[in-house]
């Protein structure tokens, strides 16, 4: 679909009631799934087959509408398992729709936030000012804040270690809008037990993620110069 055509479609859909906009999002993304165009432009997405094999378990923290989760599901197969965290209610509904309608039977979906320890958090999408591109886009950010300011949804925050996962985790991908260090701290036991490959959004030098992971023998590299992610592997 050409950009002018897409812009016209976005403008039209934005004028519809919310429930119809949501239905349009489901139609648009599921059409991409069926035609093999439901892809991420991130270099790490294209490299998932280097790190995942049939029977593996993996975790997608900040699954959004499922570009990584669905690819992971295909790679690990029926004997594997994908655990997908997506706390935003609207986005989680889209993810659930695609998993169910697409027949992805090896994805466990959690409408919760991964964090350092079990708690309640507030999380809200960054949709101000209103962004009509969001209807056909998955790059909308979110904000995590304290539970007492009234902004966003109140959701359960879970540490990954608290799940006591019974199988080795081969890979963890996380994209949680600056909350990555808390996620890492909440999976310290898993890191020490399984040494998974970690795909982490690290866009600046102040996150503390590389320094935290270095104590477990991890080193991070970027797949390309303009990549927003670091891929951490144990040295």
UniProtKB/TrEMBL annotation:
<dbReference type="InterPro" id="IPR029063">
    <property type="entry name" value="SAM-dependent_MTases_sf"/>
</dbReference>
<dbReference type="InterPro" id="IPR052514">
    <property type="entry name" value="SAM-dependent_MTase"/>
</dbReference>
<dbReference type="InterPro" id="IPR006342">
    <property type="entry name" value="FkbM_mtfrase"/>
</dbReference>
<protein>
    <submittedName>
        <fullName>FkbM family methyltransferase</fullName>
    </submittedName>
</protein>
<keyword id="KW-0808">Transferase</keyword>
<dbReference type="Pfam" id="PF05050">
    <property type="entry name" value="Methyltransf_21"/>
</dbReference>
<dbReference type="GO" id="GO:0032259">
    <property type="term" value="P:methylation"/>
</dbReference>
<feature type="domain" description="Methyltransferase FkbM">
    <location>
        <begin position="60"/>
        <end position="218"/>
    </location>
</feature>
<dbReference type="GO" id="GO:0008168">
    <property type="term" value="F:methyltransferase activity"/>
</dbReference>
<keyword id="KW-0489">Methyltransferase</keyword>
């Amino acid at each position: 679909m050409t950009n002018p055509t897409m812009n016209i479609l976005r403008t039209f859909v934005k004028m519809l009631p919310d429930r119809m906009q949501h239905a349009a999002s489901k139609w648009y993304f599921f059409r991409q799934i069926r035609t093999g165009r439901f892809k991420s432009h991130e270099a790490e997405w294209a490299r998932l087959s280097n790190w995942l094999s049939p029977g593996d378990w993996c975790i997608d923290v900040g699954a959004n509408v499922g570009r990584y989760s669905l690819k992971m599901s295909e790679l690990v197969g029926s004997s594997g398992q994908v655990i997908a965290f997506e706390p935003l209610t609207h986005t989680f509904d889209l993810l659930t729709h695609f998993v169910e309608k697409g027949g992805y039977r090896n994805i466990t979906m959690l409408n919760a936030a991964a964090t350092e320890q079990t708690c309640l958090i507030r999380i809200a999408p960054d949709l101000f000012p209103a962004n009509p591109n969001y209807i056909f886009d998955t790059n909308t950010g979110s904000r995590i804040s304290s539970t007492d300011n009234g902004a966003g949804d109140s959701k359960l925050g879970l540490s990954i270690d608290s799940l006591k996962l019974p199988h080795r985790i081969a890979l963890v991908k996380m994209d949680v809008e600056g909350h990555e260090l808390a996620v890492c701290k909440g999976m310290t036991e898993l890191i020490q037990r399984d040494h998974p490959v970690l795909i982490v959004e690290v866009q600046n030098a102040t996150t503390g993620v590389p320094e935290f992971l270095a104590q477990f023998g991890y080193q991070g590299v970027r797949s390309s110069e303009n990549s927003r992610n670091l891929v951490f592997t144990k040295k």
